[in-house]
Design brief:
The chain is α/β, with parallel strands linked by helices and about 300 residues long. About 40% of the residues lie in helices and about 15% in strands. It contains ten helices and seven strands. The chain is globular.
């Protein structure tokens, strides 16, 4: 009997999805075992972070740079509104839980990890328990694109919201920001990163990202600033970290080349890996030549007291 070719999912070549389709495609992108393994290698560097990184030295790789991003996010969160042990932080799209764990460890406050994937959520809880912060972290399985059930009304008094490369999966980014505004208490802080198209970039030039990620249309930095204000947030700011994208794309590709055999041994199908190598190779080239992608840290506050 001939061996079956391993199933590969998360292939979105030449596709951008409608608002109705995108949530199911996000689950397809992240939930299956081979996808979780791939992201843990290629974006987490063996850790629990699956987001872009900030480089401080030439020796930094995906693991070190992702930790630098976490540190920058936590500083910005605390600067936007001080984080205390009494704070309640909503980690929106918490993935494997890496950022939730660091928030709990750093500030000793409660964290609500809201995420669409049950498998990722279990990874989060297991690691939180291992790290000794299990009592501080609760997980809510949900979909922020589900207009019937989001925003939930039973989260309590949320003082801070943080998110890392998740809003790119929103069916409607303006609607999501308006929903976040409904969740938080007066004076609450919102800090997030996202991968975007550069202002002025043609959507077709972003194909190397959209072919591998479940998206509608990619946002632009100027759009987020406008949408935050329209949602009722104030003190809106943006740090443009787009200069970190080229080294990060290159670091991801380096992991694929150097650890590809180990990934395949751990269950990542070779065709899935091959498509990522091709996509990242093109992504490195177009970012080097045309800088069509943008990335950075946004901050904002709901009107109200700082403390």
């Amino acid at each position: 009997m001939a061996a079956q070719t391993p199933q590969t999912t998360g292939d979105f070549t030449n596709k951008q999805f409608s608002e109705q389709e995108v949530a199911n495609k996000v689950i397809e992108q992240y939930s299956e075992a081979h996808a979780r393994t791939f992201y843990k290698y290629v974006m987490g560097g063996g850790g629990y972070d699956i987001h872009y990184g900030m480089f401080r030295t030439a020796a930094d790789g995906v693991f070190e740079s992702s930790k630098n991003t976490n540190a920058a996010l936590l500083r910005l969160l605390d600067q936007t509104r001080p984080v205390t042990k009494e704070s309640v932080v909503l980690d929106l799209g918490s993935g494997h839980g890496g950022l939730s764990h660091e928030i709990a460890q750093t500030f000793g406050c409660k964290v609500i990890s809201f995420n669409i994937s049950p498998e990722q959520n279990q990874m989060n809880l297991d690691e939180a328990k291992r790290l000794g912060v299990g009592e501080l972290i609760s997980v809510r399985c949900g979909d922020f694109n589900d207009r019937a059930n989001f925003p939930p009304s039973d989260l309590g008094e949320v003082t801070h919201v943080i998110s890392c490369e998740v809003f790119c999966h929103a069916a409607s980014k303006p609607n999501l920001l308006a929903d976040v505004r409904k969740i938080v208490q007066p004076g609450a802080a919102l800090v997030f990163t996202d991968i975007m198209g550069a202002d002025g970039a043609d959507e077709k030039a972003l194909k190397d990202f959209t072919d591998r990620n479940a998206t509608t249309a990619m946002a632009r930095p100027s759009q987020y600033l406008d949408w935050l204000k329209a949602a009722g947030f104030c003190h809106v700011g943006f740090f443009d970290g787009s200069g970190h994208l080229l080294p990060y794309f290159s670091a991801m590709l380096d992991v694929c080349h150097k650890q590809g055999a180990a990934m395949v041994k751990d269950g990542v199908p070779q065709p899935y890996l091959d498509k990522w190598v091709a996509s990242l190779t093109d992504r490195v080239a177009i970012q080097k030549d045309k800088a069509v992608f943008a990335w950075g840290l946004f901050s904002a506050r709901a009107p109200g007291p700082l403390y």
